[in-house]
Each structure stands twice: as structure tokens, then as C-alpha cells.
């Protein structure tokens, strides 16, 4: 029997079954949807309508600092400090306000902005705003020098008067202590007896290491309190066969001779000797900044809260 016809029939049947399975597969709902998605998916349209974001110039202005008065605000202070400042302003205590400003370094938003405007303002310009009018009124009691200092001072400049500097110069008595410091020469031995009214200030400066006292001063520097005639007599007493014509030469030579410190202590009590040391801050710039704070304190004392 020939098997070829049978094989042909079987192959045909298998082919028809394969075609049937394929037709059933592509005709299912899931594959129809997939087919539609792949063929008919269209890109989304981009909206051409203008954005509804509020322009920056239409946004309400951001409040800076905390309210000091209805028109003025202050930065760098908490509510407790603001209340303390208000009390000082009510008392018109310019010295205390000055110290408060130096310790806390607050910023007065509207006042500082108006000072900048006054610095740039020319004659015959538009009339001042209500805040500028208030500032002009506050400036009236000040002297011409004080007004010029306030308007011309750059509030963004480097601040030299720090809390550390204030504490080294008497804290709340900074003005007094720093004033005495600048009145004396630096690196010069001073004789300040116990009954001297400035003795308390020198003692404080010695504790703050702004001044040296007694044995902390080199012997050759301590000897400078003696007059030239006293130095020559000391040289004779110490059997130093030298004739001195210059004080510096005499003190340096005598400081190397044993017994010079004992002879000096017979004329001056060693703890009555002081020497002011130079500070890293520029004294002239510190004075300028302190004068600015004094003028600002005087201006604030005129506020009505």
C-alpha cells in the first residue's frame, strides 16, 4: 500500500488546525485593543492657553523682620529683645540704646533703606514718603555731624565692634573704658597708684589682657618709669661703669644687671605699673563705628511708640 496519499492528508489537516488557532488568537478582544492602541494612538495636544501663574510684580510684598512700630520693622531680634528695645526707647536712654545696638546689631529695614535713599537723593526730587518724612523728623535733633555720619555710613561694612571686643572693654561701660584706653599711649609703662581714679579701669584691662601689670611687664620696660637722673644713679649703685646719654640704652643695660629690679621696687611698687597693649582692631575705625552707633541711638530715642 502506498503511504504518500495518507501523509498528504495528514499534513493538510495539521495546516488547517494551525490556521484556525491563529485566527482565534487575533480575533480575541484583548488583542483587538492592543492592535488599536498600536495603530490609532495619537500624540496629545499641547495646550496653547497662557499660564495662570501670578506674575512676580503682582505678588504681595514679603514682610521683612518683626514690627517695631506701625511703619517700622526690625531684623535680628526676637520678641523679647524688641520689647527690651521699646522700653529703652520709651525712656529715651541713648546710652543704653547705644549699648543695645552694639551688642545685638539689629537691622532697621525702613530706616536703613531711607538712609540709603537720602544718600542718593538729589534736590528738587519728588516729595518724601511717609517713612522718609518720619526719618527726616527723627534726624532733626541730631547735629550736622551726626546726620552726615548716619547718612554716609555704609551699614554693610565690616563691623569691628564685636561682643568680644565689648566684653574686653567693660561691657556696658565700653564707651568709658575704650575712651581711657585711647587716651593713654600703648606699649609704654605707666605708674597708676591705688588712689588714681583710673586704677579700676587699668585693673580691668589687665584682667582682659589688654594691659600688662607688674612682673608681666619686661624689666627693661618697667625701668622706663625712672627719670634719666634716676637711671644714672642706679648704674652707680650697681657699680656699672657706664655713662648713659639715651634712656633706651640705659634701661636695656640695667635690665641685665642683677639687683636692678630690687632697686626699682624701692622707688615704685611693682603692682602699680601698667602697660597698655595694642589691639588688632583699627582704633580710628572703632571710634568711627562707635560714633555711628551713638548717633543711631540718639535718632531712635526720638521715636514715639
Describe the structure.
- This protein is 53% helix and 6% strand.
- The chain is mainly alpha-helical.
- The protein has 2 domains: 66-160 and 291-300, no CATH class; 165-280, no CATH class.
- It has a 3-stranded antiparallel sheet with strand order 1-2-3. The chain has a 3-stranded antiparallel sheet with strand order 4-6-5, with helices on one face.
- A hairpin with a 5-residue loop joins strand 1 (66-67) and strand 2 (73-75).
- Helix 4 crosses helix 15 (283-300) and helix 12 (228-237) runs parallel beside helix 13.
- The radius of gyration is 44 Å and the shape is elongated.
- Residues 34-62 have low confidence and may be disordered.
Helix content: 40-55%
> What is the residue-averaged pLDDT?
84
How many separate domains?
A: 2
**Number of beta strands:** 6
Output the strand order for the largest sheet: 1-2-3
Reported for the largest beta sheet, the result is:
3 strands, antiparallel
Q: What sort of overall outline do the alpha carbons produce when their principal axes are compared?
A: elongated
Separation, N- and C-terminal Cα atoms: 126 Å
Number of helices: 15
Strand content: 5-15%
- Write down the oligomeric state: single chain
| Estimated structural class | mainly alpha
Radius of gyration over all CA atoms, rounded: 44 Å
Low-confidence stretches: 34-62
- H/E element sequence: HHEEHHEHHHHHEHEHHHHEH
Amino acid at each position: 500500500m502506498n503511504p504518500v496519499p495518507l501523509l498528504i492528508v495528514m499534513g493538510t489537516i495539521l495546516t488547517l488546525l494551525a490556521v484556525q488557532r491563529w485566527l482565534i488568537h487575533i480575533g480575541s478582544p484583548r488583542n483587538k485593543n492592543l492592535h488599536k492602541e498600536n495603530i490609532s494612538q495619537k500624540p496629545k495636544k499641547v495646550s496653547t492657553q497662557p499660564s495662570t501663574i501670578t506674575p512676580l510684580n503682582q505678588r504681595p510684598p514679603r514682610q521683612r523682620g518683626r514690627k517695631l512700630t506701625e511703619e517700622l520693622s526690625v531684623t535680628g531680634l526676637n520678641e523679647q529683645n524688641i520689647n527690651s528695645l521699646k522700653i529703652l526707647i520709651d525712656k529715651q536712654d541713648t546710652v543704653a540704646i547705644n549699648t543695645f545696638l552694639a551688642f545685638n546689631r539689629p537691622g532697621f529695614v525702613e530706616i536703613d533703606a531711607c538712609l540709603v535713599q537720602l544718600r542718593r537723593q538729589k534736590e528738587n526730587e519728588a516729595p518724601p514718603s511717609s517713612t522718609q518724612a518720619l526719618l527726616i523728623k527723627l534726624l532733626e535733633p541730631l547735629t550736622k555731624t551726626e546726620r552726615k555720619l548716619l547718612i554716609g555710613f555704609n551699614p554693610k561694612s565690616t563691623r569691628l565692634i564685636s561682643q568680644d571686643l565689648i566684653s574686653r572693654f567693660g561691657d556696658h561701660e565700653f564707651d568709658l573704658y575704650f575712651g581711657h584706653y585711647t587716651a593713654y599711649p600703648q606699649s609704654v609703662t605707666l605708674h597708676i597708684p591705688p588712689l588714681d581714679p583710673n586704677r579700676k579701669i587699668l585693673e580691668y584691662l589687665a584682667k582682659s589682657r589688654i594691659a600688662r601689670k607688674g612682673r608681666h611687664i619686661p624689666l627693661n620696660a618697667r625701668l622706663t618709669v625712672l627719670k634719666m637722673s634716676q637711671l644714672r644713679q642706679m648704674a652707680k649703685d650697681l657699680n656699672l661703669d657706664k655713662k648713659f646719654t639715651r634712656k633706651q640704652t640705659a634701661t636695656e643695660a640695667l635690665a641685665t644687671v642683677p639687683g636692678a629690679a630690687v632697686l626699682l621696687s624701692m622707688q615704685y611698687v611693682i603692682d602699680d605699673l601698667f602697660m597698655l597693649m595694642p589691639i588688632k582692631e583699627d582704633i580710628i575705625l572703632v571710634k568711627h563705628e562707635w560714633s555711628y552707633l551713638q548717633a543711631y541711638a540718639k535718632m531712635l530715642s526720638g521715636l514715639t511708640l
